[in-house]
Amino acid sequence: MTTVLSATRMNVLGVLACFTLCLAAADRTAMAGEADGPEVVIKDFMFAPMHVTIKAGSKVTWVNKDDEPHNVVSDSGLFRSSALDTDDNFSFKFDKPGTYRFVCSIHPKMVGTITVE
Asked: Which CATH number goes with the domain that contains 99?
């Protein structure tokens, strides 16, 4: 009886330990996402959202969810990604306040703006 009880306790402790580790990992992922800054999704030949406002020192990440390649190019030449295939991403850290316009140079009707405060 003691062996069965010990095995049951060990199984419960194992489940609790796994649950605790999963919660800690999820918490770190949420915190990392918040610290990294906003994400702009490229889908249906659009940037979403098209306008993002961030604080200086924040990073913006663009992720291509289209089946077509896209890129992200600053109209001032500050940043330029390579062609992004499906699920590829590009990030840029904005250090100075200002308004930054960007476009997909492959599809020039795709435009967006980052406002850095």
From this structure: 2.60.40.420
CB atoms within 10 A of CB 60: 23
* Long-range Cβ contact pairs of 15-18 (< 8 A, separation 24 or more): none
- The predicted pLDDT at position 11 comes to 52
Q: Shortest CA distance to 97 belongs to which of 78, 114, 72?
A: 114
19-58 per-position pLDDT tens digit: 433 334 333 333 334 447 999 999 999 999 999 999 999 9
Check residue 48 and report its DSSP letter: E
The domain total for the chain is 2
- With tokens 């489940």, the residue in question is 15
**Burial profile 94-114: b = 16 or more Cβ within 10 angstroms, e = fewer:** beeeeebebbbeebeebebeb
pLDDT for 2: 54
Please, are residues 83 and 106 in contact by the beta-carbon 8 Å criterion? yes
pTM, 2 dp? 0.70
Instruction: Please give the residue range of the domain that contains residue 1.
Output: 1-36
